[in-house]
Amino acid sequence: MTSLHDLMTRTPGLPCRLDPDPFFSSSPTDRQYAARQCHGCPLLLACMRHALAADEQHGVWGGVDFEARATGCGTERGYRVHIRRGTAVDSMCQAAHDEFVEADRRRRLAEAHAVGGTVRGYWMHRRLGEEACPGCKGAQARKSAAHRERRRAGAERPVTDLRGRRSAEALLCPETAVHALALAG
Ligand code: SF4
Ligand SMILES: [Zn+2]
Ligand SMILES: [Zn+2]
Questions:
Q1: How many CB atoms lie within 10 A of CB 110?
Q2: In testing the pocket of ligand 1, which one of 38, 39, 65 has its CB within 8 Å of the most ligand atoms?
Q3: How far apart are the C-alpha atoms of 30 and 47, rounded to whole Å?
Q4: Distance of alpha carbon 112 from alpha carbon 13, whole angstroms
Q5: Which of 2, 4, 14 is the pocket-test mutation for ligand 1 (most atoms within 8 Å of CB)?
Q6: Closest by Cα among 6, 41, 2 to 23
Q7: Residue 73, pLDDT above cutoff 60
Q8: What family is this protein classified in (predicted)?
Q9: 102 CB contacts (<8 Å, ≥6 apart)?
Q10: In terms of pTM, does the model score above 0.90?
Q11: For 60-184, where are the alpha helices, taking DSSP H only?
């Protein structure tokens, strides 16, 4: 049986021989360009079958980006492989990742709504670019009110008997502490 290599040697004008760089480029965009060059190649089917049989992990063969195929491009797994390897994230993987992130936020939001709304749910709404529902807004408002109350209570606490002790105010404001100690004699 004639090998692909023999067929390629005998066939003039093959795009992958005239300009091989994009066929094995690390850039997904270059490889997409290369895959388009295969269209109309008389060896397209033989080339694709050869790559499938050889379980190719790199390069473009028979109009197929085998690197993207091995990476799982167009899926969240593909996106993570790009990040791990430090290779450029292509638009298919970016779209899959954006979808994954949004689905994850929706799942967390559903958990928040199952308990009537939470602070985390409030932030999930914000990250999804939408207005928070009344339940999540209420949870966030209660948290802010409690925070303000704690701050107010802390600010009102008197500075007393600082001699030989460290109060919260003394730690927060050294100048006040020094002044209080001077007054206390
Ligand atoms: S189908 Fe195969 S032989 Fe033809 S141009 Fe593409 S990579 Fe080259
Ligand atoms: Zn990809
Ligand atoms: Zn909500």
A1: 11
A2: 38
A3: 19
A4: 61
A5: 14
A6: 41
A7: yes
A8: Belongs to the WhiB family.
A9: 128
A10: no
A11: 66-71, 76-85, 91-114, 119-127, 134-156, 168-172, 174-184
Give the ligand 1 atom nearest the CA of 17: 8
Q: What own/partner pairs with CB < 8 Å and gap ≥ 24 does 67-70 have? A: 67/28, 67/31, 68/28, 68/31, 68/92
Closest CA to 80 of 96, 69, 66: 96
In terms of phi and psi (left: phi > 0; alpha: psi -120 to 50; beta: otherwise), the region of 132 is beta
- Among all bound ligands, the one having the nearest atom to the CA of 62 is 1
Q: Is 73 annotated as a binding residue?
A: no
Q: How many residues does the chain have?
A: 185
Helix (H) or strand (E) holding 7: helix 4-10
Chain segment 39-66, per-residue pLDDT in tens: 999 999 999 999 999 999 999 999 999 9
105: which 2 tokens?
């936020």
Q: Check if 109 has its Cβ closer than 6 Å to any atom of ligand 1.
A: no
Please indicate whether residue 79, judged by its CB atom, sits closer than 6 Å to ligand 1: no
With H, G, I as helix, E, B as strand and everything else as coil, classify residue 61. strand
Mean pLDDT of 139-152: 95
Q: Which numbered atom of ligand 1 lies nearest the CA of 42?
A: 4
Residue 185: its pLDDT value, please? 45
**Hey, what are 54's tokens?**
């050889």
Q: Determine if ligand 1 sits within 6 Å of the CB of residue 48.
A: no
